[in-house]
Amino acid sequence: MTPSSPSPLIDYAVDFNTDNLAGQAYVGALHAANELPGNTKFVPCDVTHWEDQIRLFEQAAEFGSSGKIYYVIANAGMTRSDDVFTFNGPDKAPQKPDLSILDINMYGVLYSTKLALHYFMSQNGVTPSPAQEDTCLILISSGAGFLDVPRSPQYCNTKSRVNVIARWYVRTSILPKETFDHVQSSGVELSLQRWKTLGNAPYGF
């Protein structure tokens, strides 16, 4: 058995940006687990701001040894109580709804899509050629994209019309077995698709 070695001491004198604890902690965990050591960088980005996404893509291209971007995953998204259908009362003026779900899940994704295609086409040109390098843009859908979710019009709208790998509930390791058992016990039939694991990410096929 290989003897263990102590972890390096943490320098607590170094300034740490508490606004980005989750992102920095995730990068640290990847490095500690020897997953993509030295090839991971956290860049704060508000996806609703075009300028933030411009900066994100620029730093991503500069960070890689090739100066190129091959994969883009538009993973930022959120949901919460949706007040589009909220009735404010017969004696009250209607209140402007909070549309931040659309700002993040739709407009932010469209910004990412625009930038991804810009980099992909700049790298590969616009004419198909055997010399072109593989690139991939992945958009994240949800069961809410093809199921009715009462009083969540914004979220459902942002997750619809996306071609997905698994188009129904599929048992994977993304949720505990008990969660899928609960869904099935409520009358939802689970897909009979098999599933594999690509790295640590499950996908149906």
Automatic annotation (TrEMBL):
Record's InterPro entries? NAD(P)-bd_dom_sf, SDR_fam
Instruction: State whether keyword Flavoprotein applies.
Output: no
> What is the name listed in the Swiss-Prot or TrEMBL entry for this protein?
Uncharacterized protein
Q: What keywords are assigned to this protein? A: Oxidoreductase
| Assigned protein family | Belongs to the short-chain dehydrogenases/reductases (SDR) family.
Q: Which organism is it from?
A: Sporothrix bragantina
Q: Please indicate if the UniProt record lists Endoplasmic reticulum as a keyword.
A: no
Matches recorded under Gene3D superfamilies: NAD(P)-binding Rossmann-like Domain
